[in-house]
Amino acid sequence: MESHILLKGTKEGIRCIFPEDEGIMKIEKMCDEVLKESGRIMYDCSLVIDLQGRESDEEEIIAILRNLVWPSGAKNVVWRSYDPKTRKILKTAGFCIEEYPSYKGSRGRGLFIYKSLRSGQKVEHDSDVFIIGNVNDGSEVWASGNIWIWGKLQGVVHAGCQGDEEAHILAKVFESNQVRIGKLYSSIERNSSYWSKSTLIYAQENTLIFKEI
Amino acid sequence: MAARTIVITSGKGGVGKTTTAANLAVELAKIGMKVVAVDADIGLRNLDVVMGLENRIVYTLVDVIEGACRLNQALVRDKRIENLYLLPAAQTRTKDAVTWEQMCEICSMLSGEFDFVLIDSPAGIESGFKNAAAPAQEALVVTTPEISSVRDADRIIGLLESMEKESISLVINRLSPKMIKRGDMLDISDVVEILSVNLIGIVPEDETVIISTNKGEPLTLESTSPAARAFSNLARRLLGEKIPFDELEYVNSKGMLGRIKKFLGL
User: Fold this and answer.
1) At the topology level of CATH, where does A6-98 sit?
2) Can you give the residue ranges of every domain in chain A?
3) pLDDT of B38-48, one tens digit each?
4) In this complex, do A120 and B155 lie within 8 Å of one another by their Cβ atoms?
5) CATH no. for residue B185?
6) What is the pLDDT of residues B129-182, one digit of tens each?
7) How far is the alpha carbon of A136 from chain B, nearest alpha carbon, in Å?
8) What pTM was computed for the model?
């Protein structure tokens, strides 16, 4: 599948999400393409150059400036990266760097819990959380990443609790009255079609989507 | 040999901790065990009333702790059954009058004299619960088949697990076979699935419980009601007997239809 620079409208401006697995030559080409197709909407806007986990060197950053940022006519540019080396280069060059909310890749190891969480118990973890058991009513799970429950979910879970709205929640049996992803939350009625079913929950355009799987 | 020290707890109030503690104590004593029921609900004592011993209290657990009397002076012997004693709580003090270390010390002193030390815990998860649970190696968690009660029982089980109790068993109280049949009440399997602990007792809804409590005569003293039989089964299971969980079928057999079927030999 061919990679592209993905454009996403956010309240911070237009977010240009760069693929993580392409070389500099391909990046230059992709910059030209995106500028040709969508350069008009970038003019006088705020741009967020989201490099995700790319290990970008000085040469690549200059290539992005030359092929995308400067020709776009954007008024503000903010850079995002969770690769430590890239962040250092950007910082040394004096660029404005935004805190990366999801900490993808730089997060710690996923946390595996091989028991049920009982009422009153709370798990907080700066990464993904996997629970092989139930999350009982009255218990809570907060994870900066995804939350996967191989059991019954009745408590409250908050995936992407540091703001990552790309995190998702997966429950083998979904029976929770409330779920949260990033800054979004949703209350659920017991008569929902996915109640007591295996359910995947993710955010799309500021709404939580519940998908029976 | 040291006594088995068991805390009877629940989290939520009004689910039948004290009734369970009183009836279990009576039944174990009837079997021949030397039993002391300790009321750890300081300030809101009720075990003495349910056991019908309220008129005979001279000293309390707090008096023992404060050195106002010796332990055996505070113990109230039940004259109706041999080997049954009550260590009452003080009604005029609060939970803060006792620390968990003092409770452990008292129970350790009782442990050498008795076969069973049954501690009736107060509701809640604060110091009163901690004082009651600290000396016990085992726990009986009492719940009714209501969402709120089950949720509180789940909370208590989590706390007991963190205290590393040797065994945690479940007693489901006030089950109504009719309501279960109509789908208006949580089923036994629902409760056990949520709480994931060993089920040891099922006590059906029975109006004789209220009558016996008001009279101060524990059910297990004489009654043959479904609840009395359930408490008897609970005591025997606690002693390791394999008793089938037929408490709800027994209720049905005691009903009018059950009696007609029995008469007709069906």
Assistant:
1) Alpha-Beta Plaits (3.30.70)
2) 6-98, 111-212
3) 999 999 999 99
4) yes
5) 3.40.50.300
6) 999 999 999 999 999 999 999 999 999 999 999 999 999 999 999 998 888 878
7) 7
8) 0.69
